[in-house]
Amino acid sequence: MVDAHPGVSGIYPLPDARDAFAARALLAQGAERTLDVQYYIWRNDMSGTLLFEALRAAAEVCLGRSDLEGLRVAVQGLGNVGMPLCGYLSAAGAALVVSDLDGNRCAQAAATYGATLAAPEEIHAQHVDVFVPAALGAVLNDATIPGLRCRVVCGGANNQLAEARHDAALAVRGIVFVPDYLANAGGVIDFHQETIDDQPAAVLASVARIGAITRGVLRCAAATGATPLSVADDIVRARIIRRA
Q1: Cα–Cα distance measured from residue 112 to residue 98, given in angstroms and rounded to the nearest whole number
Q2: Which residues contact 244 (CB under 8 A, 6 or more apart)?
C-alpha cells in the first residue's frame, strides 16, 4: 500500500481494539527517533472527569438518583481513566467493584477507595447499578450481554459493542447503553478546547457540558423509545449534514 502511494501520507483504520494495541506496540518497538503520542491519553483528569459527568447524568435520568451515595458501580480496567474515575465515584459515596489484569492496581483501588475486587472474567456479571467498561473494546457481545446484571452501561473504553446489533440486544434486556463516543470524549474535547482557550477553568467548563448533553440524549431516548446510541447517531448525522 505504501509503495503504491509514494510520498503520500494517510491512515488505515483498525476497528479491532486488540489489533490496534498490537499495531501501537510494534510501532513503538520499531521507532528509531521519536514517538508521537496523543498526549491527552496520559492526562487522567479530563477523560475521567467527563466520564464521571456522563455517569452522573445517567444515574439521574435512568435511575432517578439525585446523588451517587450508595450507587453500585463495577469498573472494568484501572488505567488512566478507570482509576481516576474510582476516585470521583468514591468521593461521591458510590460502592465500587473493580477488576484489572494488574494486581497492584487492584490492591491500590481496594486500599484507597475501599473497592471490592472481582476476577477479570467476572467483572461484567456483578450485581450493580452501573457497569463501566474502561479497558479494551468489544466487551459487550453475545457471550457477556446475557450475564450482565446492571441497569446502565457507561464506560470509557472505545468500541464497547462488538457489533452494532448489540445495542439492540442491550435494549431488549432493559439495559441503557450510554454511547461510548459520548461518555469517553473527554480527551478530544480537551484537545479542541485548548486550541481555543487553554485556561484550566475554560477546559473544565467545556468538558462539564457533557453532563447536560448526556441528559438530553437519554431523555430523548426515553421519550421516543429509541436507544440512546441511535439518538446520538442521529444528532451527529444532522450536524455533519448541516455543516457540509
Answers
A1: 12
A2: none
